[in-house]
Amino acid sequence: MINIKEYVKPDTVQSAYEIGQMPNSLYVSGGLMVSQIKSERLERLIDLKSLDLDYIREEENYFKIGANTKLSSLISHPAFSNLGKGFIKESIKEIGSVQIRNMATVGGSIAFRLGWSDVITIFMTAGSQVEIYKGNFQRINLEDFISQKVKGAIVTEITVPKIDGKCVFEKFAKSNFDIATLNLGLRVSLDGKFVKEARLVVGSRPMLSQRIREVEEFMIGKEIDKVSNEASELIQKVIQTGTDIRASAEYRKALSGSLLLKALRRVAQ
Ligand SMILES: Cc1cc2nc3c(=O)[nH]c(=O)nc-3n(C[C@H](O)[C@H](O)[C@H](O)COP(=O)(O)OP(=O)(O)OC[C@H]3O[C@@H](n4cnc5c(N)ncnc54)[C@H](O)[C@@H]3O)c2cc1C
Questions:
Q1: Pocket flag, ligand 1, residue 42 (CB < 6 Å)
Q2: pLDDT tens, 127-182?
Q3: In angstroms, what is the span from residue 34 Cα to ligand 1's centroid?
């Protein structure tokens, strides 16, 4: 980034967006990923931290998370961290190190659309929506936001519904601080022992996080403690995976079956 000529700190989302439309501009929040970008074309950095977007607000049915909220604040917020019976606290702790979580923001993590992002898998499992600004404010499902490449938009807020049911997150990485070889989030609502609703998200396939709808549908109406083996076999057949430096597509398929088995055992407890 040797050709940066301007570092701008706008005070409204609208002005940040307008400046962002100028060629060779880039938004920056926590800066962890921006600092890795080696582009000679970049001339302007737009610091979004000057916007008033660092908050966690509890409403009756959901939480609103400002885009500048640090990952560490998600763990320390008493009500939000306990969402899904501690799902948020447990899962966010699996991301990077304390130092990384103290810098990385929710907005930067979502906007960058990394295939290996745990943050996206976790928020998708919770059924979150994203508020973006692109000339006007729009609210869309996180799932749609990451699949459509919404260019130039500013992520301003995430809405996370209060979770009905149990949620778990599983991550396989080669070491504690490593990026996921595969990550998996499962949210299940039960009617007695029977699965009423299921949401299953797998990320770092290595492609972007995706819901595995065939397995979700298969589980509905089945007894939670009897569904594990068949669901684990099914996910390995239907999931689309790829090969990269971390693992082969075949290894990831096998891993998806193991992580789903672990997740189902935990929700059935
Ligand atoms: C060493 C290391 C280990 C990591 N380990 C993990 C891990 O295990 N799991 C995991 O999930 N993540 C991990 N991360 C990624 C981290 O969690 C964040 O996703 C990442 O740092 C981006 O967040 P940021 O706030 O730093 O964004 P930045 O670096 O500031 O920005 C990232 C990108 O998003 C754009 N952007 C930033 N904010 C916005 C916004 N509000 N609206 C629109 N665009 C925006 C920027 O222009 C840039 O393109 C790791 C990162 C590092 C450096």
A1: no
A2: 999 999 999 999 999 999 998 877 889 999 999 999 888 899 999 999 988 999 99
A3: 8
Question: Which string of DSSP letters, residue by residue, matches 82-107?
Answer: THHHHHHHHHHTTSS-HHHHHH-BHH
Alpha carbon nearest to ligand 1 atom 3, residue: 96
Residue ranges of domains in the chain: 6-50, 56-161, 166-268
DSSP assignment of 202-219 equals EE-SSSS-EE-HHHHHHH
pTM (whole model) above 0.90? yes
Q: Which amino acid is at 70?
A: K
150 lines ligand 1 (CB under 6 A): no
pLDDT-derived band at 192, boundaries 50, 70, 90: very high
Domain 56-161 class, CATH top level:
alpha beta
CA distance 124 to 118: 10
Q: Whose CA is nearest to atom 53 of ligand 1?
A: 32
- The class of domain 166-268 in CATH terms is alpha beta
Please check whether the two domains, 56-161 and 166-268, share a CATH topology: no
Is 81:69 a contact under the CB 8 Å cutoff? no
CA of 190 to the centre of ligand 1 (A): 35
Q: How many other C-beta atoms lie within 10 A of the C-beta of residue 219? A: 24
* CB-ligand 1 contact for 121 (6 Å cutoff): no
Q: Nearest residue CA, atom 44 of ligand 1?
A: 111
